[in-house]
Write a structure and sequence with these properties.
The protein starts with 6 loop residues before the first helix and ends in a 12-residue tail after the last helix. The chain contains twelve helices and no strands. The protein is an all-alpha fold. The chain is about 65% helix and about 0% strand.
């Protein structure tokens, strides 16, 4: 007599096996990306990427030139490999985390599978390049030198632009050029000096100081002209904002941003927006 298997029990066993597989992958450092739109540095998927890069390259994820791009590529590859596994006949719920493309490919699948394979190959090539593009120390020195040069250049522009441009005919012939360059001189803080310092990817108190300075310097440059037309004073006010930002971050609020739960929502949004492209978004930096 043939006994029909209990469908509910079969489904329960399948789910249990699936969970055991996920637990085993997590135990060895691999995990699937979470369903949330944004990943944090505590997400197991991001941590598994960080661990694999340290094994292969010898540096952490945050030390790469484009850490956010690496996380995004890994996430896209996870989705493509899952799609390839489904199209090529792998069993339902097949977990691709920690597996190579070949291990996720069941063969066949026709034109749809070939299209997915081509996409995977393109993204894997890009990922291999990005995983080996390390943010070197000499590059940080270049940004620091750029900031120092911009500091002195901006002061001359704000105080006496004729020292730099007096020998050019356009300087004296173009109407109000002297004033325009003076104004650009104090705006240089927000346009070049602070961004150059932030490009070094500082952490802790210095990062917080530069985030505050990046928000404060344009505010001063917009408001100060209503009180004075002296561009040197406005340039000095920007300098004071930057120095005050460092003083506040290092002396008053020196918790390295470890607990931002006390910050108001709008401030969290501003700081999060400043991190876009620097590596911290999507959990690329702690």
């Amino acid at each position: 007599m043939m006994i029909e298997p209990n469908k509910e029990s079969s489904g329960l066993i399948t789910e249990e096996v699936r969970e055991e597989a996920k637990d085993a992958l997590a135990a060895v450092g691999w995990a699937a990306p979470s369903d949330s739109e944004e990943l944090t540095s505590d997400d197991p998927f991001v941590q598994s990427i960080d661990a694999s890069i340290q094994r292969e390259v010898g540096v952490s994820l945050e030390e790469l030139l484009n850490p956010a791009k690496v996380v995004n590529l890994e996430r896209e590859l996870y989705s493509l490999r899952s799609e390839l596994a489904t199209v090529t006949g792998k069993e339902e719920g097949f977990e691709v985390a920690g597996l190579s493309t070949e291990e996720c490919d069941g063969g066949g699948g026709g034109e749809e599978a070939n299209e997915i394979r081509n996409k995977i190959a393109t993204k894997e090539t890009s990922l291999n390049t990005e995983r080996r593009s390390v943010f070197r120390g000499w590059l940080k020195n270049v940004f620091l030198a750029q900031a120092v040069l911009s500091f002195f250049l901006s002061f001359v522009m704000a105080s006496d632009p004729a020292l730099l441009f007096g020998n050019f005919g356009w300087f004296s012939s173009v109407y109000n050029m002297d004033t325009s360059i003076r104004v650009l001189g104090f705006w240089w803080w927000w346009l070049f000096i602070v961004p150059s310092l932030r490009s070094r990817r500082p952490s802790g108190a210095e990062k917080k100081a530069l985030d505050i300075a990046f928000l404060g310097t344009p505010l001063i440059s917009l408001v100060a002209p209503a009180a004075t037309k002296d561009t040197v004073l406005i340039w000095a006010a920007n300098l004071l904002v930057v120095l005050s930002s460092y003083g506040y971050a290092f002396l008053i609020d020196s918790d390295d941003g470890s607990d931002d739960r006390k910050q108001p929502g709008w401030l969290k949004f501003l700081f999060k927006s400043l991190d876009f492209g620097t590596g911290k978004e999507r959990g690329a930096r702690r």
